[in-house]
Amino acid sequence: MATFDKHLLHTVGTMALAALLGGCAADDMPASSGEALRLSPQIENAAAVTRASTASDESLNETAIEHLDVIIYNTNNGVMQKRLTGVQTGQANLLVTGDWKSIMPEGSRLKVYAIANATQQPATGIDEKALGALEQQDVDIYKPYDTTENNGKTFLMSGSTDYTVTTRADQTIDVQLERAAAKLVVNLNVDLPGYEIGTPSWRVDNFNTNTHVFKPTDDETTADVSTRPYNSIVTKTVTNQYRINTYSYAQTWDGHNYAPMILLRLPLTKDATTTIYYYRIPLVGKSVTEIKRNHLYEANVTIATLGSSTELTNETPLQATYAILPWTVHTTNINADKQHYLMVTEDFLVMHNISMDNSIQFFASDYCSYTIDAVYYYDKNGNKINIPSYSAQYPTISGVAGNKDGKIAINSRVPDNLTVKFIKFTIKSGNLSKTLTIKQYPLEFAQNITGWYSSRSTNGWITPNNQRGKTYRDYRIGWTNNYGYYAKYYADGYVRYLGGYDNGDDVNGLTNNRMYVIQVKSTNGKYSIGHPKLASDGSSQDQVVSPAFMIASQLGAVNSSGFDATKALKHCETYREVGTDGTVYDGWRLPTNKEVNIIIDYQGDSNSPIDVVLAGSHYRTLSKERQATGISGDNNGNFVRCVRDLTPAEIERLEQQKD
Q: Which chain regions cross the lipid bilayer (predicted)?
């Protein structure tokens, strides 16, 4: 089929594209009769707009159009397509003049598709189904434009629209283009006094190099997720501050370890010696599980600690805030006369040992107000304790009242009672509202998880749902009928025996089924933070405190006279406690001497979020020693209480709980 040779292109605002019409060769066209198909900007009510997106950076070629493929499906005359070159934003050219309606009569229904910067031209005569299935791979999609290293950078964009030919002689068809890629930005601040900061280099892990040309109805697959070499394309903004731009095609993932991340290589010099440190920086927050096309993901990161000496580093503790916004060519124009809207970049935020945050942005069609709905924490018994407005721990919110857009400034003292503070507030704009939840953590804090029953991880042990013929006790004490350990469950306010003659009886009046979790974010000079390395017999001489560990509830209470040091180690290895939500907790061990000390410190505070869990005079420890607690009285002896290290996934689940 022949095609036209003359076209008009004009892209403005949100990349409006005048669609071309074609179907006959230029020498087959009738002579011009004053009729023309043209393109002009289409921005409704430009005076009543607000900014609700992030503009592209022309210096990074994010708006460049190297070539444009246009495909039109005409119900009257079949498929028409053309590749245009030399197209630039703001350029106006003639599409076609003459009696073009002889080819596309009034009332013709057109489906117009446009593709910018595709690596391959669509096949001639391609049908709509095949067009929708087109894919493109770009192994260098992560790499930003650079005049030296990557000066040919362009972005795949696409769009489509339906159009019906009218009676007018001059007509315009607008097609909005959007990028297939997402933009990921790291704003990096290096705060390391005493060190000279060298030029950082970076690579991106877990990014997608493959995409559909047009946005699919389902999620993009993650079949092609890649790791690329280091590069040094970094913008230095001010002293010790840098900006990294990278890109990925849309993707989804399960588990934060598979989210896109930057591995940063940072040279630091002190006393004339330069050392390379590595930092693994997540590009999105932990609650995010997908990257959407044509969106911008921004991470504001402060490095205030030395990183790892090798690439094989876990996620480095960093101060980071995240934002997600639409990524447009220019500011999105929202018609305030026709739309009412209220947007926030995040409705859930975690503040780690900081008293101020302004990372959340809001956009509204009308002036906003706010109310603080609740400020509270949970005590050692799981009771919600409201913080009154006159308390020094009560927060303030600013930047919202009387504004249509801006940043929300949250000011709140870091909690001083070893627990997590919850802040809930609502932003209102007209009849619309958004409720936000803030969780604020101190350096050290404790939480609790309620237990349902205890048993063992070995085969044959009893559960509440399977009691017949199952083992329910072990570690017999001498020739008596007493045993060191019994399976137990919690019901009606008491810890009770599970199985055997005493099934259902309460265990010495015990009532606390809470597994307390202690997390320590900083050594603060008092403890060494780390995971103890276990020997073949399960013991360890490491005198460290786990960064996150949980303490068995009274469901794990034992008759300690039946346990020497070796039996105590073996007991904890197979101990199992199951939460009231059905979560199974295995992998227990004895506490280190230092962990016993920190538990004593916590439970000795009248405002502590944990109850007294170590009430005996001495406790078996991981080093096969007996650690004194300083508690005297009737509870003399050597007692046993198991602990376990939380996994990163468990820490993340706790952190993401909104209440």
A: none
pTM of the model: 0.56
Tell me: the pLDDT tens digits for 131-174? 999 999 998 999 898 888 888 899 999 888 888 888 888 777 77
Per residue in 489-546, pLDDT (tens digit) is: 999 999 999 998 899 999 999 999 999 999 987 655 677 888 898 999 999 999 889 9
Q: Is the pLDDT of residue 51 over 50?
A: no
Helix (H, G, I), strand (E, B) or coil at 128: helix
Burial label, 284 (beta-carbon count in 10 A; 0-12, 13-18, 19+) = buried
Query: For the range 128-137, what are the long-range contacts, defined as Cβ-Cβ under 8 Å and sequence gap of 24 or more?
Result: 128/73, 131/71, 131/213, 131/214, 132/212, 132/214, 132/216, 133/212, 134/212, 134/213, 134/214, 135/210, 135/211, 135/212, 135/213, 136/180, 136/210, 136/211, 136/213, 137/209, 137/210, 137/211, 137/224
Handedness of CA 427, 431, 432, 433 (dihedral sign): positive
Domains of the chain, start order: 57-178 (2.60.40), 181-325 (2.60.40), 342-442 (2.60.40.10), 446-656 (no CATH)
DSSP-assigned states of every residue in 390-454: TSTT--EEES-TT-SEEEEEEE-PPPSSSS-EEEEEEEEETTEEEEEEEEEE-SEEEEEEEEEEE
CB 595 within 8 A of CB 528: no
